[in-house]
Amino acid sequence: MMTLKIRSLLSSILIGAVASARSMTPMATLAMARLAGRKTPGTLVLLDRPVFKLGALAMGAGELAGDKMKTAPDRTVFLGMLARVMSAGIAGAALAPEGRERTGAAVAVATAVPMAYLTLSARKQAIAKIGQTRSGLIEDLLIVAAGAAIVALATKSDE
Q: Is 78 helix (H, G, I), strand (E, B) or coil?
């Protein structure tokens, strides 16, 4: 029984992992899914607001560009963690089964926060080996692909 409950929240847990590395990617991938006419399992009115969708896409793109800058702060600074908590919570709720949105938000946040420290450590090691820009581009590719795959598998066509 416990395995079934965890499995039903797997998308929420995984999107929390995505948020640990790129705070805006969960929201941007959900916005893209909604624009493509896909429905999330969890109910979340925010996803149907055009301003939210466009804002999420702009913030996702901005984060990808800004991350390569030498002045970019670590993902574990207060505002970075706040963005991760909010994004993971919203995305985790949207990807959770209907009626389990709060639990989905909680497990996504519980995944994103500690994993932000792990992904930061990995990124610092990559920066030392291959530089900031290359390591950032590789991380972008992996995280955006993971986010897109998680959202694609967790959503269904609006038909």
A: helix
